[in-house]
Amino acid sequence: MPDTPIYLIDSNSLITPKATYYPMDLAPSFWASMSEKIQDGSIAILDLVKKEILQPSE
Questions:
Q1: Ramachandran sector of residue 41 (left: φ over 0; alpha: ψ -120 to 50; beta: rest)
Q2: For residue 43, what pLDDT is reported?
Q3: pLDDT number for residue 1
Q4: Does 58 have pLDDT greater than 80?
Q5: Are 6 and 44 in contact, with CB atoms under 8 Å apart?
Q6: How far is it, in rounded angstroms, from Cα 30 to Cα 18?
């Protein structure tokens, strides 16, 4: 079992920051950090969440 915690986040953990305080064009370092943490496994997202955030907005 790893000593480092793994955080499981839902779609609102990505959608709300993007739509409010951390738009991608104004906070690229926030999104780079999120991407890095997802890639290194310290943040996990379910396939269902990934599908939801990658689908085009209606």
A1: left
A2: 97
A3: 53
A4: no
A5: yes
A6: 10
Q: Which phi and psi (to 5°) does residue 44 adopt?
A: -120, 145
Structure tokens at 24: 């991608």
**Secondary structure of residue 17 in the 3-state scheme:** helix
- Please state the pTM of the whole predicted model: 0.79
Residues whose CB falls within 8 Å of the CB of residue 52, separated by 6 or more in sequence, listed in order: 11
- Provide the 3-class DSSP secondary structure of residue 8: strand
- Confirm if 9 and 44 have CB atoms less than 8 A apart: yes
Max Cα-Cα span within the chain: 41
For 31-56, the pLDDT digits (tens) are 999 999 999 999 999 999 999 888 87
